[in-house]
Amino acid sequence: MTFVVTTPSFSGPVELLLHLINSHEMDILDVPLAPLVDEFVAVLRDETVQLATDDLSEFLLVASILLEMKSQRLLPGRDSTEPDEEFVGWEERDVLLARLLELRTYSALADAFVSLFERASRSFPRLRGVDDGFVVTPPDLLAGVTTALLAGAYLRGIEEKPVPVVRLNHVTVDAVTVAETVVALSQRLPSMGRLSFRALTANLQSRIEVIVHFLALLELCKLGLIDLGQGATFGDVQIEWLDAESSLDLGRVDSYEG
Taking the model in full, what pTM does it have? Predict the structure, then answer.
């Protein structure tokens, strides 16, 4: 709710009156404050009007600012001081609100101390020490320890720890060489004609044998003894022996081992 005031020189909200005075559009000396207060008191006495706490505090704040501004103009003091230098509109309101918040914080802290004092007043410290005849006996940490047990612990501590050994006797390693496979294929392929790699390795049992056979075919192709072809993408690799009378030079074969 905005409180509307009426003076000989102004009629409108009291906040607008304060703004006009701060902006030097009106002179504070031309505004009588007593009628403003009388109007506000009359509104408070009217039982049909219900004012909220915020509206009441807002008017009191504005009225106090106007009263202090007018008193500074009427009372003798520093002539060089302008009213807006001391009160910059609503900035004064912000200062007052900040002070109220600080006071509320101190009040809450005081209440907290009072609560702590009340709680401490209900506690009673112990003024006496340990009762007479009360004896604290610590446990005997060496109970049951003999020289034989100490000697056994010492021997176990200085004995040489066995070196861990990883045994691989249960692992079977197939030693298959590319050179041996090249020799075997050079003896078999001339009589087998044209065939696929899938047919060549159909009877092999392990993956390593298939890999070694593939490497051996690459060696034979590098030596110019066989021709490798693939009719389609991801199709079977076709193998064909080129010259049945060619001799195999093992010195030119890379010694892969798998």
Answer: 0.33
